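Data deposition worksheet. Section B asks for the primary sequence of the deposited chain exactly as it was used as input, without tags or linkers unless they were present during the calculation. Section C holds the resulting structure in token form. Section D is free text for depositor observations; keep each observation to a single sentence. Incomplete worksheets are returned to the depositor.
Section A, Depositor: J.P.
Section B:
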Amino acid sequence: MWSSVSSSQRILSLWLQRLSTDRIARQRHERDDAPIVVFGKRGNLDLLVAVDCAAARLALGTGLALAQARAMHPAVIAVPEDQAGDARLLNALADWCQRYTPLVALDPPDGILLDISGCTHLFGNEQKLRHDLLARVTRFGFSARAAIASTIAAAWAAAHFSTVAIIPPGDERDLLAPLPLAALRLPQETAAAMARLGLKHVGDIIDLPRAPLAARFGIDLLRNFDRAIGCEDEPLSPRLPVAPYIAEKSFHEPIAREEDVLLTIERLAARLKLALVAHGDGARNLELALFRTDGVVKRVTAGTSRPIRDPAAIRALFVERLAALGDAMDPGFGFDLARLSVTRAEPHPEEQIGLGQAEDCAEFDRLIDHLSARLGRARVTRLIAHDSHIPELAASALPAQMTATIESGWDAFRRFRTDARLSTRPLRLLAKPEPIVDLLALIPDGPPARFRWRRAWHEVVAAEGPERIEAPWWNEDGSGPVRDYFRVQDKAGLRFWLFRAGLYRDAALAMPRWFLHGFYA
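Section C:
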């Protein structure tokens, strides 16, 4: 028994009928009516894989041999297929389609799926949204069809095989019945095998027993039909994760000046602040999407050290980002839609104002945000402590826009070192300890009396140590032999931090070696 279920989901399927030839036509400088065909190697033959409208009117179609097409019409323009170029163009169009909904998925090789549930009221109704999308895509130079239904499969079938543009919920079965079996997205071999048995339309199999159909033609036939009428869910996988907070504004007249963009950012941030406050959150990462009138989408991202809500602070972040991007933010003929999204939010409860003079880190955090926005997040770093006694592994440089928990860990590490009264570390550590070739020590396990480093000899006048550092016992690969560190000073007043790797009394190991690891101010 075939049955359908009601669903509040609404899917728009956009089919770019001649994506390959439209891409080529847009790239050509000369404008003429010469037919365009795209060919590709299939086995040992060059076959047509795409044709434009002019070529279709000349009875040229996909699957025809290129040699035969040229014999029929010598003036045809034949271009080799570029699947990577088509994929890039499809991705760019899907990026632009996010102006209608954040839930956009690719339907390769020439389709895009949009989940427009809850978005149609922004454009009036489903008919107006579809009309606006097709009008813009056509203006960009693409041949396209679009249909809306409650399931992905039904919307796809209507866009490819039906003249019905909008299918009301529950009418999927009536839509599919007169359509060919290819509307169920079946393999060509399966559809041909069913056609030989007289099963050519979807309606021919609706009342047939399910078990024999599955046994003869595979379970995919039943699954595709169930998905089309809504008996089985078919999830849509968005290209990009959906931001938890979004605010956008469209413009009747496109904007191009940076001042107008920044003013729009501040106004959108004010709208986001209301939602953030209501949920007790703050923004950690933001994204600004600017939709140009020619279909190009410009995206700018910014991060923060701590959760923020202040519209002026958010505007200041993008001032730095836009200044850093410079000419890359070419507005073209202007932006007709701006969207500000909080791609990452964190809890940000209201803070109580203290009576004492507590340290305020707001200005420092603001400085980090501005520098990170201008120079790049990876170029503004801070040292983060790690659970290791090996000096070169005890800390790492990570982006300064880190969470407060990491800062607390670093503060705790510094307090531990102060309380334990461990020896001070040099201000400058070499990225990798450098070997000392020539060294003289008065006693085997004692500090050096004289050593040569980088072709210069240093006479030691004072030394302190050793401080022994060993690799953890559970580390079987062993971060090297035991180290004895010394702080030494030469006659010129230079102070070094060097160590001996290994012990002379350990006969099982090779001869100990000396390394220079850092310098004291």
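Section D:
The chain has four domains: 1-242, 245-349+362-366, 380-420, 428-520.
DSSP finds 15 helices and 20 strands in the chain.
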